[in-house]
Amino acid sequence: MKKIFTFIILLSATKVTHAQGNYYPLSDKGTFEEMMRSVVILLMVYLVTSFILSMIKLFLDNRLKTKIVEIGTPEEVVAQLIPAGRNEKKNGLKWFCVLTTVAIGLGITGFYQAAGIYALTIMTFSLAIGFLSYFLLIRHLYN
């Protein structure tokens, strides 16, 4: 609910700032490029922070499970504390594969000074390779 409210406030603020005239930000090339850079930076920050948080959560859950086993907690209490069917390891592996291939794609893009559609193509292929590697690793590890 807070996200929706914040989004509505930000959207209304953009409308108020452009109330003086007919300004189309997507028609100006410089403004459009700056907006795209900002969106990509925010997306990358979100991806990296969610990866770090999922790894911290995985590590802390593992420590909790080992403490529970060491103490010898009854099985009923363990079943209530640890929900069944969670895929933290698979999720962490997925983020690792995706972020690693995105970093490789960004490295290739920076090395060859690719811009525009070429950079987008490189990043798309790197993401596809990341998800393919995740699929193959999961299939290899759990079969």
Jot down its keywords.
143 residues; mainly alpha; 5 helices; 81% helix; flat
Structure write-up:
With 143 residues, this protein is mainly α. The protein has one domain. It has five helices and no strands. It has helices spanning 2-17, 29-71, 75-81, 88-112, 117-141. The longest helix has 43 residues, at 29-71. It is flat.
Radius of gyration of CA atoms, rounded to a whole number: 22 Å
- Beta-strand portion reads under 5%
Tell me the number of structural domains: 1
How far is it from the N-terminal to the C-terminal residue, by CA? 41 Å
Succession of helices and strands: HHHHH
Largest sheet: none
Shape: flat
Show unreliable segments.
none
Proportion of residues in helical segments? over 70%
Number of discrete helical segments:
5
- Indicate the mean pLDDT: 82
Name the structural class. Answer: mainly alpha
Topology, number of strands: 0
Compact description:
This protein has helices at residues 2-17, 29-71, 75-81, 88-112, 117-141.
SSE blueprint and pairings:
Layout (H helix, E strand, L loop, with lengths): L1 H16 L11 H43 L3 H7 L6 H25 L4 H25 L2
